[in-house]
Design goal:
Rossmann fold; 277 residues; two-stranded parallel ribbon; 45% helix; seven-stranded parallel sheet; alpha/beta
Length: 277
Amino acid sequence: MKLLGWSTLGKATGLFTVLTVVFAAVLHYLENSDPVTFISMAEDMKTLEENFRQQNKSCFILGASGETGKLLIRELLERNIFSKITLIGRRQLTFEDKAYENLVQEVVDFEKLDESAAAFQGHDVAYCCMGTTKAKAGTEGFIRVDHDYVMKAAELTKAGGCSQFHLVSTKGADKNSGFLYLRVKGQVEEEIEALGFDRFSIYRPAVLLVDRQESRPGEWLAQKVLGGFSTLFPTAMTVPIQAVVKGMVSNTLLQPELKKEILENKAIYTLGNGAGK
């Protein structure tokens, strides 16, 4: 029995080693299969910021109460590239820091968004970080928030004269996916593109490395499993949330070659970690 135990342990160890090697190989492939193909980032970001700042542009944020939205507000305030920042949401947000005192807040009812069409007028750039989960809101609630609310907001944004729409989507978004989350994200991407913004930027981050206030067990488990590999394979399946918001703001300063651009995880990570500075 003792010999059998050691034999079983040896087999288990060997299997674990093989699985670890295979998993590492997959991560290595993912790390190197997503080339950064968007425009050159050789320009100095400080110069780009100053040039953009002089254009006296305004923006609004949807989903400002979420983790991505909150960090995006902070990043925009620190870099000071917009003359006016508006938060559009279902409730008034409170901030203690005086840096936030000039923010404009528009409280809307997403079930009656047409009544708040004026909130979407007069902006140059729109950022949409809004979203929920099926676990939190149920299937119908998830579709209503991530599709219906987002699409209605995008329609009003276009009608209000805004030229740029920046959408936080997800890695693997595909309108034909068998997974509801990925399918809805893919559908929204396609439908917003059809609205014809002068510039439509889609950000597809992988698993976000973030300490959330709300409980998301699935995301927490993914972070724990993949977080340990993020040092060796930083863009394969994860991305720090700070890199996402920094990447979004940096990308806003750049001039894309096409009206629609999709930034996959590696491109987001590269921009968010100071490429071009």
